[in-house]
Amino acid sequence: MLRALPFLLLLTSPALAQDPVDDGTANLPDTVLAFAEQTEAPQVASGVTFDEEVITGALARPWGLAVLPNGAGYIVTERGGTLRHITRDGTLGPEIRNVPAVRAMQQGGLLDVALAPDFADTRTIYLTYASRIGLANSATAAARAILSEDLTQLTDVTEIFRQTPASLVPAHFGSRILPLADGTLVITTGDRFTPENRELAQDPSTSYGVIVHITPDGAPVGEPITEDALPEVLSYGHRNVQGLALQPGTDRLWVLEHGPAGGDELNIITRGANYGWPLVSYGVNYNGSDVGAGEQAHAPSFTEPRYYWDPSIAPSDLIFYEGEMFPDWQGDILMGALAGQTLVRLEVASDGERNTIIGEERFRTGQGRVRDVAVDANGAILILIDDDPGALIRLTPAEE
Questions:
Q1: pLDDT tens digit string along 244-282?
Q2: From residue 143, how far is each of 154, 186, 399 by CA, in Å?
Q3: CB-based contact 69:119 (threshold 8 Å)
Q4: Any catalytic annotation for residue 213?
Q5: Chain centre to alpha carbon of residue 29
Q6: Active-site option among 85, 172, 238, 258
Q7: For residues 333 and 253, is the Cβ–Cβ distance under 8 A?
Q8: With contact defined as beta carbons under 8 Å apart, do 3 and 355 qualify?
């Protein structure tokens, strides 16, 4: 849960400290941290075990998940380009028609899905996807659409964002989309992977490796963060952001982004901030060479991550738990991991503006790539397993 703790309580003595989760050998074992709690939080044990219900195990590379109101079930994206309705008892509906065309290659395809805050009245949903540009190029894009009452088709499909420039490389698209309470949207992108492309993450006149803030019609929110920046860019210097959530009771956006070999980051977004990629990293390139000039610390030139992992767990989406089934977890972060094949719980301590990760717990390790995490209406935890066949699974507390 979100814990308001005196600062001195965060200074755990070595005699009382718990060991961190054993992830294996770090890629940068001698890194000097920016602050003591920046990585390897103590491994905690809540004592929670799950009863697992496979709602459906017949999905093909599922990527995004949204919970429909009034017990109407779920809608799930499959990366190949399919949007499906699933009932609460697991009945898999036919393909929902009129989904935007996608470039389904490598990491590209149909990606995230989210409901508008006024979905119950308007039936508005949002999708992100790899949009085909010309014969072989693609770009992260987002569209607004109306989901029919019978859950069979989309109407009024309108593209509201497209990454620029397009790229031939079908990798590092991002991309989560989060509708905020005021109706505006936050979208994450990636750096499009190659050494040449990733340099553009330091150029906010492009939308490579950025967080975007727009209206439902696609108009930018606020003024440009620099003289040359695209007006929709909120922050830049990111690698491949696949997790996005708003901390309850605050205006703080938290994101998860993939590092290279090591250096996966959990960040709090500040408007106009530069998060350093590809100039600094708490990881190394896949071939073992230094990222940039080999500097790990981000400050003072760049914004430090709140937390990072080395070696990588390949983080996916995150939520702040707000539900009744796991009362001790209120305000904790739940997140998925792909390479780690695990569901992660992070305990968050807050002292005013200070937010510190003080504990880490893992569940279901080695049982599939957790691509998305959500909370069902009754407080159960939902996870998507990225595989073919993949699964939508409901987790509830195991009965003693």
A1: 999 999 999 999 999 999 999 999 999 999 999 999 999
A2: 11, 13, 42
A3: yes
A4: no
A5: 26
A6: 172
A7: no
A8: no
**pLDDT digits over 56-97, tens only?**
999 999 999 999 999 999 999 999 999 999 999 999 999 999
CATH of the domain spanning 3-397, picked from 2.120.10.30, 2.130.10.10, 3.80.10.10, 3.40.50.300: 2.120.10.30
Kindly report, residue by residue over 346-379, the tens digit of the pLDDT: 999 987 667 899 999 999 999 999 999 999 999 9
Tokens of 367: 């049982």
Query: First and final CA of the chain: distance in angstroms?
Result: 23
Return the closest-CA partner of residue 229 out of 203, 211, 210, 208: 203
Can you give the pLDDT at residue 3?
53
pLDDT for the residue numbered 354: 74
> What's the whole-number mean pLDDT along residues 167-186?
97
Is the pTM higher than 0.85? The answer reads yes
Q: Which residue pairs, CB below 8 angstroms and at least 24 apart, start in 190-194?
A: 190/140, 190/238, 190/239, 190/240, 190/241, 191/238, 191/239, 191/240, 191/277, 191/278, 192/167, 193/169, 193/240, 194/169
Q: Is it true that the peptide bond before 138 is cis, omega within 30 degrees of 0?
A: no
Residue 13: what residue type? S
Question: What letter would DSSP give residue 198?
Answer: H
Q: Identify the pLDDT of residue 11.
A: 37
Three-class HEC string of 122-155: HCEEEEEEEEEECCCEEEEEEEEEEECCCCCEEE
- Rg of the chain over Cα atoms, rounded to whole angstroms, equals 20
238's CB contacts (< 8 A; 6+ apart) are 188, 189, 190, 191, 201, 209, 210, 211, 255, 257, 267, 275, 277
Residue 205 is classified by DSSP as T
Cis peptide upstream of residue 278 (ω within 30 degrees of 0): yes
Question: Which residue is it, tokens 């400290």?
Answer: 17
| Sequential DSSP letters for 72-139 | --EEEEETTTEEEEE-TT-PEEEEPB-PPP---STT-SEEEEEE-TTHHHH-EEEEEEEEEETTTEEE
